[in-house]
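idk why but the lab printer keeps eating my pages so im just putting this in chat instead. protein + zinc ion:
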Amino acid sequence: MTVTINVYLTLKFIMLPPDIAGHPALDLLNTYDTTNDFLRTDEDVIAWLRRKKFLGDAPVPDYAEGTLVNAAIQLREITQAVVRSLLERSVPDVLALNRFLACGTRHLQIICDHSGLRAEDCYDAKTPEQLLARVGQTVADLVIHCEPSAILQCANEGCRLFFYNWSDSGRDRCGWSGCNSRGTV
Ligand SMILES: [Zn+2]
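predcted complex ->
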């Protein structure tokens, strides 16, 4: 008797953007660049959130398909508008950002594990906007705490990734290893 077993393997490759901005809100902007949109599906968003440590390994709630990526793109567009204003040295319109931030809810939990007792902020994740609340908070951090003149776009016209210049170096390139291969000034 011959038994045939068919094994179907689904290999799904998720491309992630360069992780070089030095600030999570600018890394969010870099999920869209001159060559790629790295946020096309809910899975792309989850992979990016995990890499940026906004999510642990726990399963993500089962949202309606496409709602997470739509919320992430909405937050990215909000961030783009805010950063554009900062780069133009004008006061950003924070209405849309505040609406997004208002979706987030968190509470304190006491964690007891092998390292002892500690308090942790826990974020609700009943909706995609709540799952993205911590990302929204980094956009708020950019607005409130960061120096607009340190928010830069790579001088390489073929690259144009955003980065935050934490040093006094006056550098104008993003420093990503693939930058030079993306064209020249
Ligand atoms: Zn660059």
